[in-house]
Amino acid sequence: MKVYERYFARQIYLTFIFVLFAFSGLFFFFDLISELDSVGKGTYGFGYAVLRVALLTPSRFYEIIPVAALISAIYVFATMAAQSEYTIFRVSGLSTRRALGSLMKIGIPLLFVTYLIGEVVGPYADQLSERVRLEALGSSVSSSFRSGVWVKDTLTADGGHPVTRFVNVGELLPDTTITKVRIYEFDSTLHLTDVRTAERGRFQAPDHWALEDVSETKIDPVVSDTTDPKEALNPVYRSVLTHAPHYLLRSQLTPQILSVLLVSPDRMSIVNLYKYIQHLQENHQDSQRYDVALWNKLLYPFAILVMLVLSLPFAYLHTRAGVVGIKVFGGIMLGMSFQLVNTLFSHVGTLNTWPAVTTAAAPSLLYLAVGLIGLKWVDRH
Prior knowledge:
One of its GO terms (biological process) is transmembrane transport. By secondary structure, the protein is α+β, with helices and mostly antiparallel strands. It is 56% helix and 19% strand. The chain has helices spanning 3-35, 46-55, 57-82, 85-91, 96-137, 229-233, 255-258, 270-282, 288-299, 303-311, 324-351, 356-380, and strands at residues 149-156, 162-172, 178-186, 192-204, 208-222, 236-250. The protein has a six-stranded antiparallel sheet. Helix 8 packs antiparallel against helix 9 (288-299), helix 10 (303-311) packs parallel to helix 12 and helix 11 packs antiparallel against helix 12 (356-380). The protein is elongated, with a radius of gyration of 28 Å. The mean pLDDT is 82.
């Protein structure tokens, strides 16, 4: 980096850290207030509430980073403009193009930090936060559903025939143990062939579930007299009921796929989102919501660069020092409007089945255009 770039970077990074922790502290307070309703239930005390909210902090960082980058850059440039520092840089030969390129260099480390938080720290902390809460409350993930959770599972049997299962999980415990399991298995012609129930199950890598206390009902058609038209229209089936203390079931379902019940799509990692989308597509299920979430995760960190572009025009507005606060307030409103538009596009795109990449990229491209237009206007004037 050149001397002026190091100066810009130092000022922006220091202000960024202050703004980031200030906003996260505000969200920490609000999240803690929302958790007070659960305090006192089971063993969920105030200490557990503080721990849960603290574990949500990395995800708050991930959400706040673009806005914090915008506010910090606006504050730095507005201060420089008020003290005529940026004017000196321009007289010394700093063009708008070079200043924009320098801002992109400053934004790249923030971009990588955002990916690190969004892919590694945030999803793990969110799952841990949910497990802490559920264990303290003595609850399960699917306790709010009357019939539990239904998942479709398609695989190829040992004989090479496709098998379709509809799996009903009554409860998914925080340690990813499943209970009250019901499995309805269909053959390639979609005839029901097997019904299994199990009290509990644990995953055994790479692709098996160890079920306990299993009851299995096999359903086989009885060969009927084809000369009798009634028998042709009313086939007869025979069922055989067996019990087993243990049963090893091969399945494509994994705890990672079921863990989508613990974390909302926008807080999942890109890897887990991609695996779950593949699972949905293999089972011919709608994945629009998760496609949008995946592209949002891929493109969201680049919003930092867009926010830095939006901040640069504030360096060209020559005002008194007392107006710096107004510029910062304008930056806050601009950042909040970006978050609002981004969320709005995600919901509207999902409802209208717009292409996922268009839904995710449209807000950033819109604000990038606004920033470039504003930069061109202030440069001319």
